[in-house]
Amino acid sequence: MSTSELPSSETSQTPAVASPALLLATFIAAIFVSAALLFAVQPMFTKMVLPRLGGAASVWSVAMVFFQTTLLAGYAYAHLLTRFQPGRNSVIIHLVVLVAACFLLPLHIASGWGRPPQDGEAFWLLGLFTVSIGLPFFALSANGPLLQAWFVRTGHKDAKDPYFLYAASNVGSFLALIAYPVAIEPFIPLSDQRWLWTVGYYGLIVLAVACGFLMLRSPNREPEATASDATIEGTTPTWRDTAIWVALAAVPSGLLIAVTAHISTDVAAVPLFWTIPLAIYLLTFVIVFQTKPFIPHWLVVAVQPAFVLFLVIAILMIPIESIVLQIVIHLSVFFVCALMCHGELARRRPPPQFLTGYYMWISFGGMIGGILVGLIAPHVFSRIIEYPLLVVLTLLCRPGFTWPTRGSSQYVVLISIVIAALLVMGMAAVDIRLEAPLYAVVVGFLLGLTVQFWRTPLPFAAIVGMLFILNHYNNYTPSNYLVRNFFGVLNVVEATEGRFRVLYHGTTAQGAQRIRDREGNLLKGRPDMVSEFHDGGGFAQVVEAMERKAGGPINMAVVGLGTGALACRGRDGTTVTYYEIDADIARIATDPTLFSYISECAPKTKIIIGDARLTLADAPDGAYDLLFIDAFIGAAIPIHLLTKEALELYFRKLKPNGVVAMHVSNRNLELVSVVAGIGQSLGAIVRVYDGGDLEEDIDEHRWIPTIAVVARNEADFGVLAKSELWPIRERDPRQRVWTDDYSNVVGALLRHIRSRQSGGGE
C-alpha cells in the first residue's frame, strides 16, 4: 500500500508531537518492558506448573514448545496486521487484544487442570499453558515486531534500519531471564511475583497507547527499501531465502532445548538452569543484530569448529566429574554454535519493509526446532541422540556449504564415513566390540582428519557425527528393557558378568537385583537385598527400628518405586504402598522377568501413579508408621518434595509416633542440611546416617545411602536415637529454609563441591 492510499489523517505531514529523542525513548521503553515481561513469565509460570508433573526436566522442554508456538502466532498476527490493517486500525485492534488479556490476570493455573494423565503428559501440558496464559503471552509476543513496524512508519531518522530495536528487545529479555533466578525467585514469593507481573503488564498497555499515539501523529511514511546489507538491498526475499531463515532459526532453537534438558536432567529442573541457556540464546541475538557486533561474525565462523571438537574430545576422551565444569563446557559450545547460526541470520536480513515477515519466519523456525526436540524426538529416539545430532547440524549451517562432486576428496570421505557408520551400528547390534587400543586409533585418525576438512562444512560435520556414533557404540549395553517417556530414559541392563540386573534412569542407577550366583546359575525365590537396601544399611535400620518400636508389622508408604525392593525389606505382615509418578517404572517393577521383588514378596502391593504431592494428599491422615521419600537419588530431583510444605503434608499422613525417612544421596547436591532446615522449622528433630560403619562394594552392587530421618519427638526414633551412627543434625542458621516459594539449588551444588574438595561426605 502506498502513502497515497492511506487515509488523510495518516498521510498528513503534521509535525510529530514529540521530539525524535522522546519518540525513540518511548518505543525503546515499550519494547524493552514487553520483552522483559514476555521472558519473565516463562520461568515464573513453568515453576508454578512444575510440581504437577513431578519436577520432570521435560516440563521446561514442552513449555518451550508452547512459548515458541505462541511467539510464532504473535509474530504472524503482527505481520498480517501490519500488512492489511496498518496505521490507526492496527493500533485499535492491538490495544483491544492487550486489554482482553487482562481478564486472565493475575496469572494462575486454570481451573479443571488439577492432575495430568498417565499418558500424553506433553499435550496435556500444552493445553494447560494455552488455557492459563495463552492470550497474555500471545499479546506480548506480537508487541516486539508490531511496535517496530509502528516505529518504521514514524519517519524517525533511524527508521530506515530498525533492526537495532530487535537487539533492544532481546536485551530486555536477557536481563529479565538473568534477574529472575538471581534477584526475583530467591526473594519474592510466587504469589507476589504474579501481582508484580500484572502491574508491569498494565504499565505496558500505557506505553503501547503512547507508541500508537506517537505513530499516528507522525508523518506515517511507508518503509523505504533500504538495508545495511548491500547484497540484499532492494530485493524481495525468495522462498529459498525463507527456507534458509527457517533452518538457521530451527537448529539453534532445537539445540537450546536439548542442552537445557541435558543440564536440568543432571542437576535439577529449576528456573536457574532454564534461564541461563535461554539468556545465552537471546544474548546471541543481541550481539548479531547490533549495528557493529562486538564479536565479529567472521571470528565466530572461524572458531566454531574448535569449540565443537573440544566438546567431542571432552565427551569421548576426558571424563569430567565436576558438574560445574560440564555445564561450562556445554554452554560455551552452545553459545558459539547459536552465535554462528544467528550471525548468518542477521547477515541475510531483508530490507525493513519485509521486517515483520522476516521475524515471523524466524519464529516459525524456532517453533519447528522446539517441536522436533521437545515433542517428536522423545517418541522417535529411544535414547537421547538429538543433542549431538543438533551440534552436527550447526556445522552444516556454516557459510560455504556445498554438495561434493563425484570423485572429489569430500565425496570419498562422505561415502567412507557412511559405510563406517553402518559397520559400527551392525557391530553394536551383534555386540562385537573394538579393543581399546584399536578404538583409540580410530578416534585419533578421525580427529586428525578434521584438520584436512576444517573449513568445509559437510565433511567436517560428517566426521564429527562419526565420532559421536563411536562414543555411543563404545558405551552401548544391550537392554532387557528400554523405554523413553516424558520423564526420561529407562534402561534395564545386566551387569557384572550377568550376575546383576540394574535399572537406570538416564545415567543414574535406580536399583539392582542379583539374578545369578558366581557360577552363573539363575537364582529363584525371595531375592537377596542389594543396592542401597542391603542388610545393615540405612534403609534396613530404619525399617527394623520402626517394626521394633511398633512390636510387629508396620504400614509403610514409599515415594519412588524403583525396582520395588522395599517390598522385601520388612517382616511378614508389613505392608508397603508405593507412590510413583512414572507408569513405566511400575511396569518394570511388577514384571517378574525383570525384577521379582514385588512378585516374590508382596504381589498385592498397592502402587499409586501420579505426583506424590497430589496423590499422597488423598491418603487418609494418620495412616502410616513410616514414610520413605526415595526420590532424590542421582541427578535431577523434584524440589517440591523437599520443602517445608511437603514435610507438613508428610506429617499429616503419619501416625502420631510415625517418622519420615528421606534418601538424600545425590551425586551433585548436598541435601542433608536442607532436610535439617525444613525439619527444625516445624519443630522436628533430624537424625542422619551416612554409612559410617559399612563399606561400599560396587562389584556386588552394595551401595551406601545417606538417610535423614525426621521425627516430631525423640522417642519416635526408637533404637535409632541410641545409635552413634545416627547423630542429630542441627539446622545451619545461615541457610534459608526451602519452601514452595523458595529453594536454593546453587547453594546445594556449591556445598556438595566444597564437601568433595575437603574430602568429606554428605
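(the above was protein one; protein two follows)
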Amino acid sequence: MNLSSFGPALFATGLGVLAGALFLLQRLRVRHREVRVPTVLFWREAVEESRARVFVRRFRHPWAYALALAVAGLLWLAAALPRSDGDPGIEHLLVLDGSAAMLRGERFAEAALAVQQRASELPRASTRVVFAGSRPLTLLAPGEELALLRRRLEAVTPEAAPSTLADAVRAAAAVVAPEKRLVAELHGDGALDPEWKQALPADFLVQRVSSPPETLDLAASITAFGISESASGRWDAVDLYLRVEGARSALSMELDGTPLLAEQAASAVGVEYRVRDVAARGETWSARLGDAAVSSDASVSRVLPARAPLRVALSPRVPSSARAALAADSGVALVEESAEVVLRASGEEFGLGLPALEFVEPSEEQAAFTVRGPSSSGAEDEVLALFERLGLREVDAVTLAMVADRPIELRFVEDGAGRSLEVWDSLFSADFDFAQTRAFPLFLAAAVRWLAAAPELRSDLAAGAWIPAEDAPLRAADSSFLDGAGAAFRLPRAGEWTDAHGRLVTAALLDPALLAAASSASYRDDASARSSVTDPMPWIALLALGLLVSEWILFRRGRIP
C-alpha cells in the first residue's frame, strides 16, 4: 500500500494532530447540562459540574474518543489517496496496438479507453503502458501519474505499419528482473504470431484483450504488390504482381496514368493480378481498390527501375560464341568506347581499369571460375551467393569435369581494387558443349551485370521490408532519417523515402496478417485470467460510514456523550 497525495511521514504527522485535537475536544464541555440537587449543600459541586466549555480534571470517555479518532483517521487516509501495490513479484504491461489494423472505424478510440481504464485498475508502481505503432513507444512508465496517460494518448494515432505487438512485449520482457514475472495485456487487432511467444519464460502471461468481432471490417486489402525480373529474360523489362485479399473489390492499375490490363487468377489466398514485360523506364506503377476500408492499403504505388542497356566492349580475341550471346541480350549494348564492362583474353591491355571478364588458360592452380571483388559477408558466404547470382547452378559441372579430367570449381578472391571474373577459355572450345547449353547465355548475362554492379531488383517494398545497409540513410518527406548504423534495417511504416543513391523508395502497407488478425477466431478475451488491484477507497468510505452510524446509535442510547 502506498499513498499518492502525500508520503507516510506527513500522514503520520496529520494523524497525530487529529489525535491531539480530539483529545482536547473530549476534555471540553460543549453543552450546558441541568443538574437537580436535593440540598444546597452540594450547590458548589453542581455548578462546577454543569459549567460549559470548561476543561475538566480527567479524561472520562475513552470509547467515544476512540470512535471519533477512528472516523477522523479513515477520512484522513482517504485524503491521502491510498493505492495497493499489488503482487510485488509481478510487472504489468499494457500494449495499445497502433498498427494499420486499428484504422478500421473507432477501434483505436475504443482500445485507448480500455487501456486508460485498465491502467487505473493496476498498481502504478509496476505498470507500464506502451503504444505499438511503427515502433514501440512508452506512454506511461511505472510510477508516473495516471493523468499523463490521457494527454499522451491524444498525441498518438494508428500508423500505416505492420503490427509491432510482439516487439513491444519482447522489449518489455528483456528488462524484467529475474525474480519477477511479466503479465502483458494486448489491446488491439494487430497480428501476433503464436510461435514468437515460445522465446518468453514459461511463467510470463500474455493476454489478448479484444473487441466484439462485429465491430471489425473485413474489407478488401492489397496484401502483395511487387515486381520481378521478366520471365522472358528481358533486362529492360519487369513483371508486375499484385494480390488482393478479403471481400471482392474493383481494382484499377495504371502506369504513369495509362491504364494497365492484367492477367487475373483466383488462388487460395485471394485474387492475383500479373502484368508481364513492362518496360523499365522509371515510370510510376499504381493500383487502387474501389471500396477498401483501410486507406493505407486501398492504394499503392511503385516507381519502376530505369534500366538502360549495359555498355560492353569486346576485344577481338573474345570467343565468337560469347559475342553472339551478348549481341542477343536486350540488356547489353556492344560499344567500342565509353564501356562499363569489357571482355578480353588473358594478358590483353584492352579496357584496363574497367571491370573485366577474362578468358584464361587452365592451370593447376586456376579454378574454372575465379571471381575477384569486395566481400560483404566473408569469402565462403560470397561464393555461395555468387554461385546463385551467376547462374552456375544451371551448369552441368559433372559433365564438364569428366571432359576436363579435373573438378570444376568456383573460387572467390577478396580484392578491394575492383571486380573481375576469370574463366577457362577451353570451356568455349569444341571439346566442351558449354557454349551450347542454356546455362551459357544465363552465365554471361549474370556475369556482365555483376561486373557492372547493377543494383539488384527490389521485388517487394513494403512496411516491414528489409533495406540493405548500403542504401542508408533513407530520408522521409518530413526530413527525418532511417539508418541501420551499418546493418540492414526494416522500413517501419508505409511512405516515401529517398535512399543514399537518390532513388525514390515507396513502401506500401502489404500485410496479409491484417486480415488474419481480423477473423473472429483471433478474438478471445482472457478476462478470467486478468487480474486487478482492489481500490481501497470504497472500503474506507464504507467503514467510515459504518462507524458514523454506530456513533449515532450509541449516542441516541446514551452510551456515549
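Reviewer note on protein two: Confidence is low (pLDDT under 50) at residues 212-217, 292-296, 518-529.
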